[in-house]
Amino acid sequence: MHKILLIDDDVKLTVLLRDYMQADGFSVRVECDGASGVGAALSGEFDLVVLDVMMPRLNGLEVLRQIREQSTLPVLMLTARGDDIDRITGLELGADDYVPKPSTPRELSARIRAILRRTQPSTAINAPSTAIVSGNLRLWSEGRRAEWLGQPLKLTSTQFNLLEVLLRNAGRPVSKNELSERALGRPLVRHDRTIDVHLSSIRRKLGTLADGRPLIQSVHRLGYQLLKE
């Protein structure tokens, strides 16, 4: 049973979401303020955090920043519908995805499952441990780890998924819709910048090649491509 931490100060909403998610097979703990939410998130007890952006005192973005200083635990943000600034800021700080409020418990539960399916390391006996390699970039799917120039890359779960898709298709463009389907587990929504923000973060972590080019390039009208070294 996956353990979910829900951090939100809206008591009525958290009761509704908790009851639905528990009926849907999740174990759910609720924290109603940011400070206690950070402590719980860093306890190592949970598989995913659902985090509301709008909270008094310690808001959701600060909670996310503090979590990301120490953990790559998947975080799904709850954002006000149409609030692109908070949404983009959250993604830049390392949130894996977002759900606009108001949303149905069913939609939230489905999004949680989509993230969890793509963040759990393989537990298969004798699972292969061969790295996927392109030049100085190496990635191990089973252990969900990656290295660039021999150094570990600190990636969120969604960043890892995106990099794996691009690495498996090194040398050819991958559409944003395919990236969204395979890395986020959902179709691309019109005007959604989630993929762009995540890839911008990955680019910063990779730096540039010797000739100054980024390893991941935008291809006009086609999507994104990881250069094959």
Q: How many strands, which pairing sense, and closed or not: the largest β-sheet?
A: 5 strands, parallel
How would you describe the shape? globular
Number of domains: 2
CATH class of the largest domain: Alpha Beta
How many DSSP helices?
Answer: 8
CATH topology of the largest domain: Rossmann fold
Mean pLDDT: 92
Tell me the radius of gyration. 18 Å
Indicate the percent of residues in helices: 25-40%
Low-confidence regions: none
Strand order of the largest sheet: 2-1-3-4-5
**Count the strands?**
11
CATH homologous superfamily annotation of the largest domain = Response regulator
Content-based structural category:
alpha/beta
Instruction: Report the sheet-strand fraction.
Output: 15-25%
Distance between the termini: 42 Å
Give an overview of the whole structure:
With 229 residues, this protein is of the alpha/beta class. The chain has 2 domains: 3-117, Rossmann fold (3-Layer(aba) Sandwich); 132-226, Arc Repressor Mutant, subunit A, CATH 1.10.10. The chain is built from 8 helices and 11 strands. It has helices spanning 11-23, 34-41, 60-70, 84-93, 105-117, 157-168, 176-184, 194-206; strands spanning 3-7, 27-31, 48-52, 75-80, 97-101, 132-134, 137-140, 145-148, 151-152, 216-219, 223-226. The strands form 3 sheets. A 5-stranded parallel sheet has the order 2-1-3-4-5, sandwiched between helices. Strand 6 (132-134) and strand 7 (137-140) form a beta hairpin. Helix 3 (60-70) packs parallel to helix 4 (84-93), helix 6 crosses helix 7 (176-184) and helix 6 (157-168) packs across helix 8. The longest helix has 13 residues, at 11-23. It starts with a strand and ends with a strand. The mean pLDDT is 92.
